[in-house]
Amino acid sequence: xxxxxNPFPAMWRLYRSMPLTVKLGTIWIVAIVFAAIFADFLPxxxxxxxxxxxxxxxxxxxxxLKHLLGTDDLSRDLFSRIIYGARVSLTVSFVAVVxxxxxxxxxxxxxxxxxxxxxxxxxATVDVILAFPGLVLLLxxxxxxxxxxxxxxSVIVGFLSIPxxxxxxxxxxxxxxxxxFVLAARAIGTPRRTVLFREVIPNVLPSIMAYAxxxxxxxxxxxxxxxxxxxxxxxxxxxxxxxxxxARKDIKLTLFPVLVPSGAMVxxxxxxxxxxxxxRKRGQVRGAAL
Amino acid sequence: xxxxxxxxxxxxVENLSTTFMTPRGPLTAVNGVNxxxxxGQTYGLVGESGSGKTVFSRSMLQLNVSxxxxxxxxxxxxxxxxLTKTRKEMQSIWGKEISMxxxxxxxxxNPVMKVGTQVIEHIRHHLxxxxxxxxxxxIELLRSVQIPEPEARMDVYPHECSGGMRQRICIAIALACGxxxxxxxxPTTALDVTVQHQxxxxxxxxxxxRDMSMVLVTHDLGVIAxxxxxxxxxxxxxxxxxxxxxxxxxxxxxxxxxxxxRSIPRMDQPAHTRLLSISxxxxxxxxxxxxxxxxxxxxxxxxxxxxxxxxITTHAxxxxxxxxxxxxxxxxxxxxxxxLSAGRPQTLAMHNVASTTSEVK
Lengths: 290, 361
Ligand SMILES: Nc1ncnc2c1ncn2[C@@H]1O[C@H](COP(=O)(O)OP(=O)(O)O)[C@@H](O)[C@H]1O
Ligand SMILES: [Mg+2]
Known about the structure:
- Chain A has 290 residues and is mostly helical.
- Helices cover 73% and strands 0% of the residues of chain A.
- Chain A has one domain (28-40, 47-282): MetI-like fold, CATH 1.10.3720.10.
- The radius of gyration of chain A is 22 Å and the shape is elongated.
- Chain B has 361 residues and is of the alpha/beta class.
- In chain B, 34% of the residues lie in helices and 21% in strands.
- Chain B has helices at 53-60, 87-91, 115-127, 131-144, 150-153, 163-175, 193-209, 221-224, 245-250, 255-262, 303-307, 330-341, 345-356; strands spanning 11-22, 25-37, 42-46, 69-77, 80-81, 98-101, 181-185, 213-218, 230-235, 238-244, 312-314, 320-322.
- In chain B, strand 11 and strand 12 (320-322) form a beta hairpin.
- Bound molecules: adenosine-5'-diphosphate and magnesium ion.
- Chain B: Keywords: ATP-binding, Cell membrane, Membrane, Nucleotide-binding, Transport.
């Protein structure tokens, strides 16, 4: 593959072909993912250090050179908390994408190709799960759990991500399976399994990837809602939703500690949606050309 | 494989019918088709779009995609029944004994896989060769279908190739494993006229070179001329005329065949000659007419044609047709005269064209 041999020019060309908003979105996503992964190695303050104890900082401070985004009601550095909080949001949403596209995507592609009773059973299950409002089901599952660690939350959100991916993958697999090249592959005696893995799945993949970017944004909001209700990963681990909730009580004094985590969430969601949309449109253009 | 007797036909289709269970009721797209293809020969299958040619060629190989399909009858390949074979058993026939070339080369290659990979994987699957040998054989194949710079072509994606190039690649894949029968379903319909001829000549050349037989499906009788030994004309799922190519062109027995012949532009006619377009549409297969399916569009149709299905009959020159009033008989001239004086529009339309081309017949 050309792409693997020399990735940088290819990536640069891809970047150059993006509209401005998509460029900004990509930069935002790359930056926040990078910061979240390497947070421990970046010159960040301890996200749980309360500066007012030693008289170093005040509570609800505005932005300054010392605290780039100010401090919260316990005088903790908001900039650092945003980045550590991103770890939770991004991990949950990453697990959801992986579980959704690997399990849901494969299942959907499989049943869309093989059809029959298995398809009916799988899709009925999917429809039942999707019939519940996502947040309600999530709340129900989470309240059952004793511990609300990052692992537990990720597993639950990951599990709930499977059905929508299954649906998207099946719909695409249905239409791909009817394309002439799949029939042509069958007509030259290609085994069914090979047809599935070589013809159907690679052609379903782009639409799953486009969906994954948009769905990842949804998961971030979902985890945020959970955290806002105090049901996500528990303190002292910072979460965006938890930060919003905590800053809520001082909202009459200062808006800033609410705006910072909200902004982080909004920009991330917006960036994922913009990039996801662009990927989807590009896929359509390419699909039409083929 | 059976060691078949020397006089067993390569392909023998008997009473093949295919019905789709549609929401509007059963739709019989192929209806009681009989066809015999000898080794080394080419069979032309002609009919306008929607007449069931594609369904027929896929039915023979159990390649119909929908689950609501029912195929009856018998298809014997080298004396072996194909319709009762399981999918597993068919897998060693598809692409190895019998290959297909499809209508639209733009969609019949996997868009996300390199041309070479598609060729190589196919060869390796059927012939069990190593990667290197398969690649060499693949390049050889591409060369044999006259693809320039075959080594370079192995590493491109289908969308980087022209339509003609892609069809050559499809043909190379179809030829790869030494099939004895090639079914080409409108292999040139989606291509430019100049490319059409190259592809048809290529198919013809390869067929001879590899001692294969071919079923050449087309909606254009002009494609068949000079390339097929026998022709079967299909209308509304039935074969309405079967003859060797010479006889069919010289003395068509079925008015539909005649109309098809008149709709081909010919070099030996003056440039201003009007071409006949067959008025009306083929019948709705979910609601087939009681009598001959062509009767509503036929210039010769009489009452019997509208009410009774004509059986297939054999004529003195060996051709077969399903028609109550075969062309070239006094009855057919009378029928035409009668329809003309009654002012039957289908007849008038044809007569107008006929009179401007009075020299044709
Ligand atoms: N999967 C299907 N379900 C229902 N009807 C079908 C299906 N496939 C083909 N047909 C019908 O069969 C008839 C013959 O189609 P086809 O064989 O594609 O015609 P041709 O190849 O001669 O143009 C058409 O009327 C079409 O509507
Ligand atoms: Mg067709």
